[in-house]
Amino acid sequence: MDIRNICLLGHGGSGKTSLVESMLYITGVTDRLGKPADGNTVCDYDPEEIKRQISISLSMAPVQYQGVKINVLDTPGNFDFVGEMQSGVRAAEVGVLVCASKDGLSVGAERCWKYLKEQKKPCMVYISKEDEENANFSTTLEALRGKFGNSLAPVVAPIWDDNKRTIGIIDVLNKKAYKASGDKRPKREEIPIPENKLSVVEELYGQLMEAVAESSEEYMEKYFSGEPFTKEEIRKGLMVGMHEGTVAPVLCGSALTGLGTEMLLQTIVELVPSPLDMPPEEAEDDSGELVEVAHDPKGATAAIVFKTISDQYGKYSLVKVVSGKVTSDMSLYDTTSGKTEKLGRLYTLRGKKTEEVKEIACGDIGAIAKMDYVRTGDTLCDPKKIVKLQKVQFAEPCYSRAIAPKTRGQEEKIGTGLNRLNEEDPTFTVVNNGETHQTVVSGAGDIQIDVLVSKLKSRFGVEAELDTPRVAYREKIRKSVRKQGRHKKQTGGSGQFGDVHIVFEPQDESEDMIFAEEVFGGSVPKNFFPAVEKGLREACQHGVLAGYPVVFLKATLVDGSYHPVDSSEIAFKTAAQLAYKAALPEASPVLLEPIGELKVRIPDAYMGDIIGDLNKRRGRVMGMDPTGDGDQIVTAEVPMAEMMSYAIDLRSMSQSRGSFTFHFVRYEECPPAAQEKAIAEAKALAEAE
Q1: Alpha carbon 187 to its chain's center
Q2: pTM higher than 0.85 for the full model?
Q3: How many CA atoms lie within 13 A of 7 on its CB side?
Q4: In this structure, are residues 440 and 430 in contact, taking their beta carbons and an 8 Å threshold?
Q5: Which terminus, N or C, of the chain has the lesser number of Cβ atoms within 10 Å?
Q6: First-to-last CA distance in the chain?
Q7: Is the Cβ–Cβ distance between 260 and 254 less than 8 Å?
Q8: Phi, psi (5° rounding) for residue 591?
């Protein structure tokens, strides 16, 4: 069967899910037009999506048009779920950028366009919501062209009434005009091209023919000789232009009235390349060498798992078959786990509805049920010809919250729930921090984390609460102090006796404590040295300022005394700890805070705001590097304590155009004000516990 795979992407609220509804309705798959506000769309079926009226997960909705199967992948526009968009682009041949007509150029459109270019994927643009008030196709197109260049080539021209409302569209390539008609299921009805639009159509047609001519020397010669292109030549030329990024066809319409939906389907069939027409994919063989995998129906099987759905309806691994075919009786090798997996049942998905199929053909998208060990990003291939296809490279999580159950004793339940949710969404991470005794979940933003908490309650019956993650401070001393530790206890029969003199001093060789002994004349027998060291190492776990571990400490045992009967290892261990407690408050202790390296990428226009904000966070700007596309990468060192809300703050400062990475580099002395605040928080926490 002839197949096309497209991914709808764009800013939140631009009408992607409604456009899928229109496609399903017009092709007769559904008998009503669902609306996100009513919670009855095919693609937004998760209870969280219905409640919030936004898409959260990638969803699939195949339709048939003119004998071609079109796999439509609907992706969320919210920036917290950008990983879903990236997964969709991995599986599709072409991205369809959906832009609302009255919104002009949105940040979401900018980011999606940029991502498609990075992935070298062809792009089409669909200007949606042409039925709404203040919709303006021309203004939006100009705004998009201003940002993305003249590769945007309209293959439609809207027809307006006197109130500037779109009442029809013109198919520029075929020079035909249509309006939407029909009381129930909308159909397109051909109408004459208005007189005042003839010159516009000729101009747009000329631009498209220029784009076709530029796709090859042969076509260029034909164009200059004045010979018209055949329909097949136009199709091939525009496909080449899309591949090379010199042409991005622009369409428009309204999902509500159905105007333009059939035109979009027709354009997808005519201009979007079949998966079999795509160039080979890069992969690695079992020795790590780069190889190419051709889209060959008769080749060895190779499929990429681009999405996992793990919900109350079961677990499904969504795969795009790159080579060969996948059948339900196959055993395929998983290049990540190293296991050969016997495949379960195969399905095609439409929203939450499943339909069992016998095979998934080359270039097609489908789902394999109950693959317990298969994860998103895995390659499933013929065990005799092992290849590892390229995974989706998700952005590092940058927003962290501590998560804990509202009811004590449900920690395991939260852990199990988060692990299950992580199968479905690999863009967040969970870390059990033994030092701060918190479970920290990190994702792209607050909405993603909030959705995880809601899903823990609805799916796993556990209520969780979020808190700011604690910072793992350290303590050290700044001057040398000598102290005695003497432990003497007499309790009928043998007592306990240990006496040590220890010099505590700062050092910069090792974060761990360095223990040394300079005892003369056997005042402390050698067999008690390990007990003294053990006592000190245990004591170092808790500093005297705020109870944080003490680092860069040197402790030298210099003197002491013992009792031939009452001295024991436990007595000397206790004596060492008494010396530690006496010495450290006098050794000028100071708190050390973790410092991280921040790399933030922002457009030039926001540079002043970002630098000013970093100064407020006690950051030190180390450098600024232009990227060549109007962005700057600012490198700075910032205390981790000041970065807890940075993901949200950067979004608001840069209108969601900024991105960043942040990694721990070292510990530094804490300034007095920050130290006082950290000590007060530590004491409050200790009292609460």
Answers
A1: 39
A2: yes
A3: 29
A4: yes
A5: C
A6: 65
A7: yes
A8: -85, 140
